[in-house]
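[#protein-structures] MJ: dropping Glycosyltransferase here for a structure pass
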Amino acid sequence: MYVVPDLVAGGAERHVVQVLPCLDPSAFITRVVCIGQEGRLFADLIDSGAVTARALHRSRWQAIQACAELVREMKGFRPDIVLVRGYNAEVLGRIGAAAAHVPHTVVWAHDCRDGDDRSRLRRLLDMLLEPITDAYFGVAEAQRRYLVEDLGHPARKVRIIRNGVDPSALDPRDDKAALADFGVPAEAPVVGIVAALRPEKDHELFLDAARRVLSVVADAHFLVVGGGARRERLESLACVQGLRERVVFTGDREDVPSLLRAMDVVVLCSRTVECFPISLLEAMAAGRPVVSTAVGGVPEIVADGVTGYLVPIGDAASLAARVIRLLRDPAQCRKFGSAARARVQSEFTLDRAVAGSEQALKEVAHGLRAGAGPVRLTVVLDQAGVGGIEVVLLEMFKAFDPVRVRPRLVCLREGGALSREFREQGFEVTELDRSGRYDMRTLPRLVRLLRKDRTDAVLVTHHHHASLALGRLAALAAHVPVNLVAVHDMDLTSVGDRCLPRWAMASLFLSTAVVLLSEKQGEYLEREEGMGAHWWSRTRSRVIANGTRILPVASLSARAEARVLMNLPADAFVVGMIARLSEQKAHEVAFEAVARAADAHPELHLALIGGGEREGELRALADRAGIGGRTVFLGRRRDVPRLLPGLDVSCLSSVHEGAPMTVLESMTMGLPVVATDCGCLAEMIIDGEHGFIVDVGDSEALGARLVLLAQDPDLRARMGARARARVQQRYRIDQTADGYARLLQTLLGRSTPELEEPPAAYVATAGHRDEAAI
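AK: finished. structure tokens for Glycosyltransferase:
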């Protein structure tokens, strides 16, 4: 969160508007709070679509109210870092950050004075706030002495990140067309200054120099670009000096790049405070030679005699002489302009400024919270039923390195069928005995539990709606640093449903991150459910694929034992379907496929492993399809790994999926898979390599692929071997556990970003890819 006085048109304000929207959205979610009014640049920030912002509309006499509102903003946004810039923002922002328990606070300084001119009150406040200030960022090396020697800030806390601009946004070609608006002849030499009409910019010096230039270059004209309260006074001064016909005051302009192209020379004649002026960088990026006073960080920008000239502060004669030299030598003017643009392109680009800002912010966030113990992770579920997500969580718990992550399970209701296995593996399981939808005791119980355990992170899953709501609310109330939402499904629009309920999507910004199964899933949520469309539905995201244990290769005896358990002939060709008996799995499509395939391969049998509400309906449907005699209903089983060796092919005919564990378990057993093209299946199974992918609902294609595999044992063996190798390479449960551990450690600042391998990931903002960090 960046706290500023306002966003009026100034260099420091433009820095906010230019840099923040460009921060990597996979690593940073940003918000700006103006203590006072919005300012002219506020709309530009909002229009960027990458930053949320609010103005408090508080005056300097409403400090207490402003501080209270800042605390509320910070508690709502829960920033890792609060940046402050400007007197009242630096004081109120840091006090608010301390009150809201923000981990880190940074002052971003944009001034560079001679000596310490702070009031006694300001010195006292800065001294008191020094211990809670993690860093002081500057924009010019010239500030280092000022910040350390004059203001007394610790040198170790000072970091310089020079400003930058986007050269591609500034055309270096000459174009005088913009002069027509001001009645300036197209052939006239033009000298311009782009600066707010403030005392420190010393426009009086510019007018004095203009008068001197006209005495030598009689057809010169001058543009004063910028607005401010001093305009009337400066216009009067120009009239007094006889410059009324040659000096144009343009006011604030949106077309500054066009005006720069119409100028031959750009001047900046500040007498103090100037650090690393963006207006100067833009002029140079536009291929304009510059003449500037050697103030603050300007000598770091302008190479005297190469990209322009530096002159002493307040010296109108020297300023005029250098301008005259350039106007009278167009070739030299062009040479300086080309060198100026090249210097910006090599040293002062916006990309470099953004990269430097990102690195500095990450160093602040990570450098002071390293060395802690294992991440205390609490997974909140309604109950631990026997489902794909719950199985993944159990296996992931077992795969976690206890030095890195200490997981536990909280069930809002009873423990569920898998809770005993969690306990048998030594994991803490807490049941809150939620009695119903409106049990008001659940939330305070959960908050107390999280506080008592000092939980570092809360993880909820998308399909447990009670935990999706209460788990996140409790995490916020208990000030848990990280709360994650794991989304394990997609393609639900095909059945008129959503992965994330509308209320959850509308509050997604309250979650630290969303964990996705694939980039394709992120694109689906963005396209179909509106993730990232608005600030409230935007958060960082990380792709962490599901994983499974690598099962041992099945032996002949294991195959024979499985056939006995399933009551199937030893020589049958068995298609297995491991899935709940629910509408989602579309068993009727598989039945039609098996009926078609059985005509070509009479020994084909179908083994259904799973229970559910459709069992009676599906038994009748199998009979009507003529496959009742070759279909076995095995019900919900806890010994699926013992049954898998008895299958020849694994099949799934779902209408929507995520990354089903049953498919991964089949592949690790060396079984080819025939599945419909939904969810992540087409990424898990490369069509023709590890099995086959068919369109959703296409029973004819599904049946044809089953026949092909039934008739070609060698093809089954090749595909099965490749399927097993694919899981070993990409879908191991230890990789899933490591992905979560890395994400948690990164979000909590317990890992060094440079040591993180770049993960494949997706951020919930259109068109952006990710790494979750701050």
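MJ: nice. The chain has 29 helices and 26 strands.
AK: one more thing. The chain has four domains: 2-160, 167-347, 375-547+735-755, 556-731.
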